[in-house]
């Protein structure tokens, strides 16, 4: 009851944020102003805390703002993404301050990359969408706007420049609501404290071969089963696996969808309550815009509601994350072997028709695994749901391998010998001839 009372008080405080902060303006902020320092002239504390997203010295067991090379730490990911750009480079995302720099420097961008990839990286994007049109923006080339996208994720992405009220600045979230018959202008301020994050921290795909229209696959629900139904119905695939030939979906970062299935969402706790908590400075209370793991700011986040020691909270959170990591790795191992065994049978002359069922199963297994793997929090936002989804991912991959074992026995294929893929370099060297052969086939 004490925790619920504190939670109610905390949410009540946040409702006060919905009152227009007009009196705080030192000078007017122009429409489409993307330079965060201009907003900072009127809101220096929020701006200074946003600037702290440039810090790279924080590190929790599974997150933080420092550099992590996921392909180096988990080389089997290279096999799982063979033929897709993530097999080239996949690093831990840095803070919002680096959004433009990181998307510009990544090896995943090439001469064919659509402008859609800018969508969540800068408050310059809404201005460009207004200038050229939303559809035209998405259908353009990434490099067409390199000289115009300069400012990293910041104030204008989430705030109205006249009132400072929270606002939705990207079309995909509004469009997803409209397709579900919901009006996003009717949601509460507390819901907006998560929905401004959900503009980007979600699963999405680029609809249309040329249109590349950013779309949320929410029409059949936000669970993994709902997304499976959506992608099955629309026929969308992200790529064909270079080793197994399976049609694949790459989940992006379904943070909001997973969060919505956890206890914090059920209790009405928003993303901002934990990742952007209130801080006090000289009697002035403001929202911390550093946007980081609550594990690095327990006093202002978790301990507002949970009256446990910092050590008790950290131990509890890491215990949940460790269990999630164990389930992730078990599914990864099965999915990797399934791709390799299908690929080996394919090279030994097994026909596409014979491999169809096993390919479908490994594709489903990887999509389910990725729904958990690609969302931030290492399973903490909805532990039971993540465990359930990973159990299904493992089952799909195991069933794929079982069907391949039966087929291989019928064809009297030699026993499959797994390659040495124990480092990123070895794994990338292994997939290289498969990727080159796939590219050559596309060029014919």
From TrEMBL:
<protein>
    <recommendedName>
        <fullName>nitrite reductase (cytochrome; ammonia-forming)</fullName>
        <ecNumber>1.7.2.2</ecNumber>
    </recommendedName>
</protein>
<dbReference type="GO" id="GO:0019645">
    <property type="term" value="P:anaerobic electron transport chain"/>
</dbReference>
<keyword id="KW-0349">Heme</keyword>
<keyword id="KW-0732">Signal</keyword>
<keyword id="KW-0408">Iron</keyword>
<dbReference type="GO" id="GO:0042279">
    <property type="term" value="F:nitrite reductase (cytochrome, ammonia-forming) activity"/>
</dbReference>
<dbReference type="GO" id="GO:0030288">
    <property type="term" value="C:outer membrane-bounded periplasmic space"/>
</dbReference>
<dbReference type="GO" id="GO:0046872">
    <property type="term" value="F:metal ion binding"/>
</dbReference>
<dbReference type="InterPro" id="IPR036280">
    <property type="entry name" value="Multihaem_cyt_sf"/>
</dbReference>
<dbReference type="GO" id="GO:0020037">
    <property type="term" value="F:heme binding"/>
</dbReference>
<keyword id="KW-0479">Metal-binding</keyword>
<keyword id="KW-0560">Oxidoreductase</keyword>
<comment type="similarity">
    <text>Belongs to the cytochrome c-552 family.</text>
</comment>
<keyword id="KW-0106">Calcium</keyword>
<dbReference type="Pfam" id="PF02335">
    <property type="entry name" value="Cytochrom_C552"/>
</dbReference>
<dbReference type="InterPro" id="IPR003321">
    <property type="entry name" value="Cyt_c552"/>
</dbReference>
């Amino acid at each position: 009851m004490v925790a619920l009372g504190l939670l109610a008080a905390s949410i009540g405080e946040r409702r006060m944020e919905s009152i227009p902060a007009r009196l705080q303006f030192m000078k007017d902020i122009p429409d489409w102003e993307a330079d965060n320092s201009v907003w900072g002239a009127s809101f220096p504390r929020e701006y200074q805390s946003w600037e702290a997203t440039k810090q790279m010295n924080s590190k929790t067991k599974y997150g933080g703002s420092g550099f992590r090379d996921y392909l180096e730490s988990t080389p089997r990911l290279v096999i799982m993404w063979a033929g897709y750009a993530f097999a080239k480079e996949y690093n831990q995302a840095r803070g919002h301050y680096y959004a433009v720099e990181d998307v510009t420097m990544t090896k995943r961008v090439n001469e064919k990359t659509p402008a859609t990839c800018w969508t969540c990286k800068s408050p310059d994007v809404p201005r460009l969408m207004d200038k050229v049109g939303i559809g035209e923006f998405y259908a353009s080339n990434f490099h067409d706007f390199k000289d115009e996208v300069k400012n990293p994720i910041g104030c204008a992405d989430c705030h109205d420049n006249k009132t400072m009220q929270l606002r939705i600045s990207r079309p995909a979230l509004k469009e997803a609501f409209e397709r579900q018959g919901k009006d996003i202008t009717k949601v509460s301020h507390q819901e907006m404290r998560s929905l401004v994050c959900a503009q980007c921290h979600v699963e999405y795909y680029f609809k249309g071969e040329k249109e590349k229209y950013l779309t949320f696959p929410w029409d059949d629900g936000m669970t993994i089963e709902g997304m499976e139904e959506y992608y099955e119905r629309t026929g969308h695939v992200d790529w064909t696996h270079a080793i197994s030939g399976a049609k694949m979906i790459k989940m992006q970062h379904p943070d909001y969808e997973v969060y919505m299935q956890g206890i914090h969402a059920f209790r009405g706790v928003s993303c901002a309550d934990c990742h952007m908590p209130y801080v006090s400075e000289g009697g002035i209370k403001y929202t911390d815009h550093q946007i980081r793991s609550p594990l690095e700011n327990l006093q202002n986040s978790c301990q507002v509601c949970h009256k446990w020691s910092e050590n008790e909270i950290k131990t509890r959170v890491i215990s949940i994350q460790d269990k999630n990591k164990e389930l992730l790795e078990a599914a990864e191992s099965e999915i990797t072997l399934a791709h390799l065994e299908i690929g080996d049978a394919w090279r030994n002359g097994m026909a596409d028709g014979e491999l169809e069922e096993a390919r479908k199963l490994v594709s489903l297994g990887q999509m389910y695994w990725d729904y958990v793997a690609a969302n931030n929090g290492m399973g903490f936002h909805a532990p039971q749901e993540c465990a359930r989804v990973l159990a299904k991912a493992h089952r799909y991959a195991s069933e794929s391998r079982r069907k391949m074992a039966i087929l291989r026995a019928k064809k009297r294929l030699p026993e499959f010998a797994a390659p040495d893929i124990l480092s990123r370099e070895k794994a990338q060297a292994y997939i290289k001839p498969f990727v080159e052969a796939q590219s050559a086939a596309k060029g014919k």
